[in-house]
Amino acid sequence: MLTRPDVAIVGAGPVGLAIAWRCASRGLRVTVHDPAPGSGASHVAAGMLSPVAEAYFGEHELTGLLAESAARWPRFAADLTDAAGADIGYRADGTLVVGLTADDLAEARRLWSYQQGLGLPITPLRPSELRDREPALAPRVRGGAVAPGDHQVDPRRLVPALRAAAERAGAVLRPDRVGALSEVDAGLTVVAAGCGAAALTGLPVRPVKGQVLRLRAPGRGAPGFRHVIRGYADGESIYLVPRDSGEVVVGATVEERADTEVTAGAVLRLLRAAVDLVPELAEYDLVEAIAGLRPGTPDNAPIIGPLPGRPGVLVATGHHRHGIVLTPVTADLVTELIVTGEPDPLLAPFTPVRFGKEPTWN
């Protein structure tokens, strides 16, 4: 006779797998349900850990959560590397935020001023200082800033490592699709199903399409730059994420659409902006063009906590652009809530009740 799990997790992306690992490591019996682990937004994601560069006007609580989770990432990465016996591509080279034109630089400076006002570590650089750090930047780049605490990880290494760590800790993965919460038999259920959480919970989670490119340096050498580069090029927002493998991730569009088709226009805009900032990318191989769906919410913040009207159900979804960087803090907060029954004060701004009515659920 099968033993009823203490915790069932619906969704095997980074958040769901990290919760499974942490809960199983605390001695809980854990089952994870997902027909295709790691095939959602994380498979497309670039893996930027950017609490500073992602700090936007009016998102104060989210900015605080991003900073808290980013501070946990070095220990989380070390623990995971030990638990899984695998390199997850964690790099702490920092991020450069740049502007190609005078207008681009003015927009970037407006955001830096806001970020500095919050006490976030971002330092404007003179053009000569910028090129000393990254000679690969185009001569046309007008200026930039450095965010030394904005790091990166490789999601395509992260997810297999989280799965290995969870399974080594005793979690069981089941390749089944959960169509309704009534199908799950466990002491407690965690819905970490990304965009799929809407159908299961009735919460306002919507798909936000993102198109991303992957380039590869010629001869499989390392890219000619080390920092993550984010910025504006003729009004186009762009990021470039170099990997030791020779890969460079270029992204990303933000579209209120639910399809995963790659469009020629998006590829053109991303490549033009990328080459404008780092000209050598024109000689790189284009190895992948892909689109995914981020789980967005009305206020762009995640939904973490008990599901109103449904005892024994927690949600951890709606992370939008921030699923990778928020993985450690989400896993820690949900695990502590499960183990102790006491919510951490950090959760207060992000619980489902903020949407003002009891959701419907399946």
Automatic annotation (TrEMBL):
<dbReference type="GO" id="GO:0050660">
    <property type="term" value="F:flavin adenine dinucleotide binding"/>
</dbReference>
<keyword id="KW-0560">Oxidoreductase</keyword>
<dbReference type="InterPro" id="IPR036188">
    <property type="entry name" value="FAD/NAD-bd_sf"/>
</dbReference>
<keyword id="KW-0784">Thiamine biosynthesis</keyword>
<dbReference type="GO" id="GO:0043799">
    <property type="term" value="F:glycine oxidase activity"/>
</dbReference>
<dbReference type="InterPro" id="IPR006076">
    <property type="entry name" value="FAD-dep_OxRdtase"/>
</dbReference>
<comment type="pathway">
    <text>Cofactor biosynthesis; thiamine diphosphate biosynthesis.</text>
</comment>
<feature type="domain" description="FAD dependent oxidoreductase">
    <location>
        <begin position="6"/>
        <end position="337"/>
    </location>
</feature>
<dbReference type="GO" id="GO:0005737">
    <property type="term" value="C:cytoplasm"/>
</dbReference>
<dbReference type="InterPro" id="IPR012727">
    <property type="entry name" value="Gly_oxidase_ThiO"/>
</dbReference>
<protein>
    <recommendedName>
        <fullName>glycine oxidase</fullName>
        <ecNumber>1.4.3.19</ecNumber>
    </recommendedName>
</protein>
<dbReference type="GO" id="GO:0009228">
    <property type="term" value="P:thiamine biosynthetic process"/>
</dbReference>
<dbReference type="Pfam" id="PF01266">
    <property type="entry name" value="DAO"/>
</dbReference>
